[in-house]
């Protein structure tokens, strides 16, 4: 039996039990004195407080208790999921809301693996950044998360609270893949099926990171338009044009969605004349053939019903045309 339990048992025991039968003290020792009763109550309170402290410690260990942490002791997740967290109007509204009404929803952190006494954010980066800007403690749940647990929590919280744009999801998936995470973990973090995961990773590889950073998250630009931009940028000349567009002062002054629209529209306009099919017409104005650029080169198509023998004529004269082209 523990020492405190022995003491408690002694003080809870009637005094008469400790007095020999027939003793003159037996009649006067039936009720414990006030001091003894008070000490027994104190022991009861100590025991209750110890049990409460033990329960509280268990809740903290499970991450069920909200704690207030110094934001300077917190670092972001090892995988970034946002292209720009602080420039959009929503973030300024968040800062103003926390300044006026306090932080209503706690963030989730884990003890930092490499820095004792520090923490790492799983989700709630924007709330943490806002509290850090306001120089106030941040409310947080602290849980011992594995790397996989952290990125899954990070991705799911984004999906439930503030959806990532298509390109942010693509870069997030690419970051996780570069960290060595299995496809199943990445799919769970982003809540996507395998085919969509393949498209996300393909776009992240095909569009240079510098272009994505310059354009920004572009929340209104969905998958089809990002795929179109990636197809346009397969041409090295288009990449050179986009570099020039990004360096224009007017490009930097507008929002992310407008930057995306400018880039896509300008690349479409500069590509269209060169890539538009050319139609061949005979003397009567009939369309007898077309010339179309392809990813691998150039293709000529002729309607031999309208221009019989044209194919043989071109083949016979093609060597002379090539020689004329190569001559100085």
From TrEMBL:
PANTHER family: CHROMOSOME-PARTITIONING PROTEIN PARB-RELATED. GO terms for cellular component: chromosome. GO terms for molecular function: DNA binding. Pfam families: ParB_N, RepB. This is Plasmid partitioning protein RepB. It comes from the Bacteria. Belongs to the ParB family. Residues 67-159 form the ParB-like N-terminal domain. GO terms for biological process: chromosome segregation.
């Amino acid at each position: 039996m523990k020492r405190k339990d022995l003491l408690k048992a002694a003080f809870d025991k009637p005094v008469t039990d400790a007095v020999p039968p027939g003793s003159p003290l037996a009649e006067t020792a039936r009720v414990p004195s006030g001091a003894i009763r008070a000490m027994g109550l104190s022991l009861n309170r100590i025991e209750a407080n110890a049990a409460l402290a033990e329960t509280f410690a268990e809740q903290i260990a499970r991450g069920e208790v909200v704690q207030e942490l110094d934001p300077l002791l917190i670092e972001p997740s090892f995988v970034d999921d946002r292209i720009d967290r602080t420039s959009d109007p929503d973030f300024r509204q968040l800062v103003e809301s926390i300044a006026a009404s306090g932080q209503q929803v706690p963030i989730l952190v884990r003890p930092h693996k490499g820095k004792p006494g520090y923490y790492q954010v799983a989700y709630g980066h924007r709330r943490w950044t806002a509290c850090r800007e306001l120089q106030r403690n941040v409310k947080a749940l602290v849980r011992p998360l594995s790397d996989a647990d952290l990125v899954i929590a990070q991705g799911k919280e984004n999906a439930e609270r503030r959806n990532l744009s298509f390109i942010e999801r693509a870069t997030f998936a690419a970051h996780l893949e570069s960290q060595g995470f299995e496809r199943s973990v990445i799919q769970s973090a982003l809540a996507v099926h395998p085919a969509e995961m393949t498209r996300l990773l393909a776009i992240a590889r095909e569009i240079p990171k510098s272009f994505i950073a310059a354009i920004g998250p572009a929340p209104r630009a969905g998958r089809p338009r990002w795929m179109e931009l990636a197809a346009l940028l397969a041409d090295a000349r288009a990449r050179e044009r986009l570099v020039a567009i990004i360096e224009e002062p007017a490009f930097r002054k507008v929002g992310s969605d407008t930057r995306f629209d400018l880039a896509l529209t300008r690349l479409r306009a500069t590509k269209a004349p060169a890539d538009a099919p050319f139609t061949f017409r005979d003397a009567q104005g009939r369309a007898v053939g077309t010339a179309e650029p392809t990813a691998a080169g150039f293709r000529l198509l002729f309607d031999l019903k309208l221009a019989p023998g044209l194919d043989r004529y071109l083949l016979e004269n093609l060597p002379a045309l090539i020689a004329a082209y190569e001559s100085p």
